[in-house]
Amino acid sequence: MITEFLIGFVLQAISMLGYAGVFLLMLMESTVLPVPSELVMPFAGYLVSNGTFGLMEVIIASLAGSIVGSLISYYVGKSFGRATIVKFGRFFFLNEHHLGIAHKWFEKYGDKTILACRFVPAVRHVISLVAGTAEMNLKKFVLYTAIGAFFWNSVLLVAGIMLQKNWVEITKYAEWLDIAIIIGAVVFTAFLVIRHLKSRR
């Protein structure tokens, strides 16, 4: 029922607003609003496949939306602080458990958590708030957010292009897609760490 409502909402928003719809939906997805990118980007990919949308235009609109939405969350976190976010978060679709996980990861792994968490279900919606409460360097925040959002959005976009009219099928495999991307991100990060360590010898 909820999934059907969200599918209808995404379809209507993009059909009515075009690229602006993609921008707004991805902005909402990057805050704490329950708009899944797993619906937005595959549908946009389908529209690219049939010639309705241009590939670069969708990439730019989605990336801009992700960055702006993340910045909104960042400044909310920075302005109100962790205690207030945890106290009132439940009224704004925030899960205290997910907030706790994001805080622990950020404290343990630092700034690069922003990049990694773009690929982690549920946590990616709150990590920008955590970065704000930690007063992370803004330039680094935008950089890591942009890199992570670009790869995540592109994977979903390509999936929609390949599936075409069957784009909605991706919702059935979203969890496995998340796992595959997480594994890929871990492997890539490990490669960079190993290469860095070797270069220091």
Automatic annotation (TrEMBL):
One GO cellular component term: plasma membrane
Membrane topology category:
Multi-pass membrane protein
Location in the cell reads:
Cell membrane
Q: Which residues form a coiled coil?
A: none
Q: What is its main location?
A: membrane
Pfam families noted in UniProt: VTT_dom (PF09335)
Q: Which UniProt keywords apply?
A: Cell membrane, Membrane, Transmembrane, Transmembrane helix
The residues that cross the membrane are: 7-33, 53-77, 141-164, 176-194
Q: Where is the VTT domain?
A: 35-161
UniProt-listed InterPro entries: DedA_domain, VTT_dom
Indicate what this protein is called per its UniProt record: DedA family protein
Please tell me the species this chain comes from.
Candidatus Iainarchaeum sp
